[in-house]
Amino acid sequence: MGTIARFDLISLSAAYGLLHFVETGTGRGDGLAYAAASEARFRSLRSGEIEPALADAARRRLGVDPRVRIETAASAAFLQEACRAIPRDEPVLFWLDAHFPGADFGIRSAAETTDATMRLPLAEELGIIAAARPEGADVIVADDLRIYVDGPFAHGNLPANLRHLCPVRRDIGFVHALMGATHTVQELYEHEGYVLMLPKGTTT
Question: Which of 74, 80, 89, 90 reaches 20 to 30 Å from 134, CA-CA?
Fold first, then answer.
């Protein structure tokens, strides 16, 4: 399991003018807590979690921060609402970590989510962002690159017993197709891997 804490939010926010944090897959709220405590000082912090028990626990943990909003929803519905609510000229840091819902927290196994799009929602999530925010000014980070490719991951490649749950064609061509016109796509191999999408025309 990866973590948004691997990334320097202060530097990213300064480089790209990030004003909001949007996360799919709240989990225990660790990513949201890291973003909330960061000196990046996001104006709003939104998170969507499909598992009600996890969402409720995160609200109890983080609800005292008036910037925080946690929705109990599938990631696609949550992202559509978040993209409607945030002005298109206010850049967002998107942290996409909603795959295998509940599996990392003992609520269900990775195989129990039979809807393939809900089990691995990254392509749908990126499609929503690309359509709703075509300016391409947002920074996007996706967790668990090793679902889609093999590589020199610090925590090893995806276990064999999970590969049947992944797309038949394991690559990130869909990421380049959806975001390549507006973003530079980087593969990072720490932990289980990340895909970092940075707006073109600027550098960190």
Answer: 74
